[in-house]
Amino acid sequence: MSTTTAHRSNVAPDSKLISGARILLECLVRENVDCIFGYPGGVTLPLYDAFYDHPIRHVLVRHEQNAAFAAEGYARSTGRVGVCCATSGPGATNLVTGLVDSMMDSIPVVAITGQVSTKLIGSDAFQEADTFGITRSCTKHNFLVKNIAELPQVIHEAFYIASSGRPGPVLVDIPKDVFQAQAHYTPVSSIHLPGYKVFTEGHTGQIRRAAQMMWEAKRPFVYAGGGIIAADASDELRELVETLNAPAVNTLMGLGALPAEHPNFVSMPGMHGSYAANMGMSNTDLLIALGVRFDDRVTGRLAAFAPHAKVIHVDIDPAEIGKNRAPDLPIVGDVKRVLQKLNKVLQEIAPEHRQSNADARDAWWHQIREWRAEHPLVPNVSTTEIKPQHVMREIDRLSGGRAIVTSDVGQHQMWAAQFIRFSEPRLWINSGGLGAMGFGLPAAIGAQFARPDKLVFSIVGDGGFQMSIPELATIANHGLPIKIVIVNNGYLGMVRQWQELFYNNRLSQVELNSFPDAKQLAGAYGFKGRTIEKPEELASALEEAVQENGPYLLNVRVSPYENVYPMVPAGGAINEMVLGPPQPVEA
Amino acid sequence: MLQIISLLVENKPGALMRITGLLSARGYNIESLTVARTLDPELSRMSIVVDIEPQLRTQVIKQMNKLINVLQATDLTDSPAVKREMVLVRVRAALTNRTSILKEAEIFGARVVDSSTEGFALEVTGDSEKLDEFIDVIRSYGEIEVTRSGTVAVSLEAKKLRLSPPVPKTTHPEEISEKLETRN
Q: Fewer Cβ within 10 Å of end Cβ, chain A: N or C?
């Protein structure tokens, strides 16, 4: 690289020439990055040389995909930007699943990838891949830096884009010669993104109308999601719910947004949501949708979703408004700001409205309590075998709503979401939109690095766990006190459940044999592990895991044929739930 | 149904890919696409004709507006706008036909941009239907080769002019905007 900023007049005469790699680290420091998850390679050698004696902590994972998931775990547990790093070619392609995952769940992540030298780009060079092209659709934005002079600007823009508006992943692809080039580092003072539009303030008139509608509703229902957590709007949500005394659900992405023990909290809605939550959604006359995207796993058949409801939809992303359900009143804005204003207006106009629908609202609450009592979410517990729900109940007991719980994808994820309570946001960490198996364990690594003081449970299935076994080395390496709980039913449980229910129980390729011995596996990495299969062992084994100072691998053999209920079959309306296994017909 | 989208985008590598990628990811086929620099060399104007079901049009425009490189995406399908296309036609013409071809060209307002013993190269602009007709007529005289530019469009809504650059940063922005105002 010959182009440097050396000729610029604004360079202080005493500023030294430093490499692109050092400039990158300088920018990361300015972005308050304290931890990067990554894996080195050929073209990132200059960068890793700079890491060698740099205060930013680099965590060496064992697969790039897990670097991306760990960065997500970091971001999801703190709200700060998670950073991952990989080399060109295979390193970059391995990041893709994690990038899509953070895209789907709106998680702020910056991925740094190495690229072959600018002169070699396009020549099918060793470990060359079109990272910029490949990651176009799996990032909020991406950059290819072809000149060291652009590097600081791009890095700060990347962090700004990742963390502002609707958060998401941003990838910066940096060729080897840009890492090696020398330039004077000039701190960036402003960001130039003329096409980047972020709408934070909601429309005042719309907010007024929303407040009016909320007081006029007879059966209001709050549907709050991941946007509340991204916007750090839990307090505002709580105020809204209390002012209106409205029942509220948190989606899978929003669990913890309203504390689970809050009297107005109903539970999670959707395909495996509770009866009360789904009936509430189906019968409300005003659906107050806050930071949600009307995902198909929540709405079921769209045409039959919330058929009696007017919809108020608050979202920072204008493209979410009307994407799946046309709202009666859209508000584009940061849900925190919008709720702050809305709460104010609600209070202002409360005196004239509070009494008008009081009877109807009492009846509505009565109805919700009735639904709750009719089909409560109760963990299935047996004395002869460990039920997976029983595992969740015990983890819930030990967590007391305060532990970080990361989950993988499948049945255990749904049971955890149903039965583990969260008192605050950023405790429940799971792959919601993409449903990426192999997420849970590396995400726990990221979360534990971000919040070393926290008790972290990583609840994984025996399938997903085997996708992330290599990361046991990372855990052992750093002595991370993660409590890995394998909910082991010997099957890809969720797929098996669908095969049982919809494919005549033809269990095709879902049986997972040859699971390793947990004690020996953990022992091979130098930490404790154990397998249990009796219900009476469960509580004490989990307690032992929690009391252990270091990592713990607890393999829980659970009943193999347990299904997740309630269940809305694909394509069904959410009030058409299957509430439990078919009862045996008596002769 | 064909939709005409006008975009103001940053003149940067990858900007085109993001826009076409957004369309191809949803399985939409692009009928035509033109892109060129605006008065501000950092920006490009793009006109895309694409087949999208009417109920999904708003969503696609919103998704385009979300792209970091896109300053503004506008649906011109049903709004007042001038939509024009250019076509270049080479026609092999026997001596006996040459006069008639020139007459046809005159009717359609086409210009001769090349003339040789082989035949002519003609240039004509207009709306797409008119160009279809022109091509049909010329084809009746013999072998032809056609290159179409695809539709370029400009909105005629008054407010659009004020909202949308290009306003060159280097020279006199006031002058330009004045010009735009008076043309209104």
A: C
Neighbours of A350 (CB within 10 A): 14
Establish whether the linkage from the previous residue to B166 is cis, with ω within 30° of 0. yes
Q: What is the C-alpha to C-alpha distance for residues B21 and B30, in angstroms, rounded to an integer?
A: 11
Q: What's the predicted TM-score (pTM) here?
A: 0.93
Q: How far is CA A38 from the centre of its chain?
A: 20
A-B Cβ pairs (cutoff 8 Å, strict): 40
- Ordered by start, the domain boundaries in chain B are 2-79, 82-152
Structure tokens of A417?
């979401």
Residues in chain A: 587
**Helix ranges restricted to H, A37-145:** 45-51, 64-78, 90-104, 131-134
Residues A375 and A182: their CA atoms lie apart, in Å, by 67
Tokens of A268: 């999670």
Q: Parallel, antiparallel, or unpaired: how do β-strands A82-86 and A109-115 relate? A: parallel
User: Cα–Cα distance between A223 and A243 in angstroms, integer?
Assistant: 16
Peptide bond into A220 cis (omega under 30): no
Contact B30, B4 (CB under 8 A): no
Instruction: Tell me the β-bridge partners of B47.
Output: B6, B34
Alpha-helical regions (H) of A354-468: 358-374, 388-399, 411-419, 440-450, 462-468
Alpha carbon of A11: minimum distance to chain B alpha carbons (Å): 24
Chain B residues bordering chain A (beta-carbon distance below 8 Å): 9-10, 13-14, 17-18, 21, 25, 58-59, 62-63, 65-71
Contacts for B46 with CB less than 8 Å, ≥ 6 apart: B5, B6, B7, B8, B9, B16, B19, B33, B34, B35
Token pair 């026609």 is at which residue?
B91
Instruction: For residue range B9-67, list pLDDT tens digits in order.
Output: 999 999 999 999 999 999 999 999 999 999 999 999 999 999 999 889 999 999 999 99
Say how far apart CA B87 and CA B150 lie, in whole Å: 8
Residue type (1 letter), B116: S
Residue length of chain B = 184
Residue of B nearest to A143 (CA): B14
Q: Which of A138, A143, A146, A293 to mutate to test the interface with B (most CBs of B within 10 A)?
A: A143
**B68 closest CB neighbour out of A193, A318, A321:** A193
For residue range A437-492, list pLDDT tens digits in order. 999 999 999 999 999 999 999 999 999 999 999 999 999 999 999 999 999 999 99
B interface mutation test: which of A106, A121, A137 has the most B CBs within 10 A?
Answer: A137
- Whether residue A132 and residue B14 make contact (CB cut-off 8 A), yes or no, is yes
Task: Note every long-range contact of A517-520, with CB atoms under 8 Å and residues 24 or more positions apart, other chains counting.
Answer: A518/A486, A518/A553, A518/A554, A518/A555
Task: Work out the minimum CA distance from A338 to partner chain B, whole angstroms.
Answer: 20
The CATH code for residues B82-152 is: 3.30.70.1150
**Residue B164 DSSP class:** S
Residues 6+ apart with CB under 8 A from A319: B59, B62, B63, B65, B66
Sign of the alpha-carbon dihedral angle for A413, A414, A419, A420: positive
Nearest beta carbon to residue B67 from set A194, A195, A323: A195
B2-79 and B82-152 agree in CATH topology: yes
- Structure ipTM: 0.89
The class level of CATH for B2-79 reads alpha beta
Distance from CA of B105 to the nearest CA of A (A): 43
- Determine the 3-state secondary structure of B74 from DSSP: strand
Q: Which amino acid is at A95?
A: L
**Residues in chain B closer than 8 A to A142 (CB atoms):** 14
Cβ separation B25–A142 shorter than 8 A: no
